[in-house]
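Q: Make up one entry.
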Amino acid sequence: MTDLERILAIVSEARRRLVRVGVVLAAIFGFVLFFKLVPFTLSVGGLALPLAYPWPSPFDNVTAQVFRALVPLMLPHDVTLLNVGVGDSIIAQMEIGLLLTLVVGMPWIVHEAAAFLMPALRSSERNLLRHVGVPASVLFAIGFCAGLFVLTPFTYRLLFFYVAAMGLAPVLGVQSFITFTLLYSLAFGVVFELPVFIYALTRLGLVRAGEWRRHWRGAVIGCLVFGMLVTPDNSGITMCLIALPMFGLYLGGAYFATRWEARRDAREPPRLAAAGG
């Protein structure tokens, strides 16, 4: 097989994988925008099981249901949400739909990406993917849930304390609410991936564990810059609320990278000695 044929085969395989991913994501996105979930209770052996069935509803759909659940979870009870722009409610539904599509479709995306990359990876790299795949998914889920259910509501309440102190009316545009909520929660999911990223780079031999400890000051600046970029407000409070746990996760990743490197170095001398004998 010539180089050109090999490149064309890779491109064809990538296109096939992308089409498969696109079909699944489009189906999920269409479902959350044009169906709603109608709850019902199923009695089985004396147990009441809460279930739901889909029903066509292009306006009161899954995204609208998620929005109505987010409002009391996130905001103080006296905050009023306003539809400032004509299409703000539509954009809000689209953004929620994209997030739900990404979350629900992520296992399929990971499966297709792994299936595409596996033939090109060495055995050590395949083992690394198997070792970090589950922890990475779990950490992202923990970070996203912590951001969605704990840190984002806390941030809203903290910021509205300043609104009350200024004697201002506690109102918020629906577009600002959705953008801030989704970006802030997703940012915590991404931040929780940091230990896996650090561990993987050390295990691949790209960065020595000592480098992570040596450059902790640069990590502090990087955490602050990341917090500044991903938070849509300019208060500085939200930036610090992301940067502080991010730096803690950086130190945790450096610790696990150091442990792995120490175990590897402890195993190498006997093997080298045996080879020399």
